[in-house]
């Protein structure tokens, strides 16, 4: 009976922490989105859904997302093998190199591909795939590193070729990770904003950019609401599929310890390593092109960051925008850590509850709903709260925290779920309360992942563009917003400033990611 009591104690109080992120989502996500959809539906939204143009947008959105997902999976698999199975000198640098594209600001990547390819459908697909190779490589590589090689060795000893061994033994075992990664990549590509805005122009639009156009430029709330409904329905479907695949992946990781370690490639594996090397080179190319372009005029672009651009294009200097970015990202990261850790602890405590997958999916929803929808919803709802947040500088960190919180959950939750439940039960049986169990058992084991989540969340908030571009006031514009405005305005000086600002953002991103990689060595978690 004592053991039963011990098993029951740790799950009760920590589960209540889930009320904190749920309350935040209710006020700063569900309420604004519901308000703008309700206001929009007062118009003739059904007519918008019946238009051929709407379904052409849906077709292009799904098509480019599917194509980018396929490219990301094909490019990410060799890199996943490299990270999981090959002994590498400077492995942390390679892992950081793979992760850097994922956390670069969308305007930076869009500008890089525009300088290389000029724009168009192919540029959109490749840019979205560029962003998401890391998701495939890290998610699949994380499971691949835990696969028992004895099954593969047995197949090889029975005469199976390397290819047949991979397709019949390894690939089925990797299916949970592949499904989880593909769902997340498709979601990110379908809701891509900055990349499509910069590379698609007026000719190629997705649901996300069309919602922005109808809300900001045409003031067509009915049409924007109808498109938002389509987007939310598609996002929920993808998230449900992704949650199921993710749970299967986490179960596989929990059942298997890390494999016996990496080793040097042999035979046909060298071809896979070569393919991974080509992918890594292609990941470096757009980044390198931006750095080179930033020095086209010598150091003129960097010097110009102390001003407001050609003929006063900006309301703040480049360095003031950088400080705005640092302040907003710090506030957003602190808030996201509080919410993400609370959500992760609650999900672990409720792991056997039937609604836990629904709660997990709800926490991921902000990643898939249009940032413009959320931002405009803020402007028509938050005046009802004390202090009228619509004119507050806190509005940008609140919106950024919505984006960062799901990523914190995805980094921390797998680690907490992988902790042997018997450790918690042993601590509880010795008289430790729920919070002491968390402090003495969970926190030491998850500390590195918590620090990594802080660094990862910080660079994501630093480069957030979608919601920030809509909510930031001219005097609180962040560096990504300033880059977007410089690119949209004429003048060689503006272009030089944009490339210089992009380079600075990339340097900060690389530095933080290298620190994160040192913290996360050997840890579980996505991305």
Automatic annotation (TrEMBL):
Keywords: Cell inner membrane, Cell membrane, Membrane, Transmembrane, Transmembrane helix, Transport. It is a multi-pass membrane protein. The keyword Disulfide bond does not apply. It is found in: Cell inner membrane; Cell membrane. PANTHER family: INNER MEMBRANE ABC TRANSPORTER PERMEASE PROTEIN YDCV (PTHR43357:SF4). This is ABC transporter permease. The chain crosses the membrane at residues 12-34, 54-84, 96-116, 122-147, 168-201, 221-241, 270-292, 332-350, 362-381, 393-413, 449-472, 497-516. Pfam families: BPD_transp_1. Belongs to the binding-protein-dependent transport system permease family. Residues 58-240, 322-516 form the ABC transmembrane type-1 domain. Its main location: membrane.
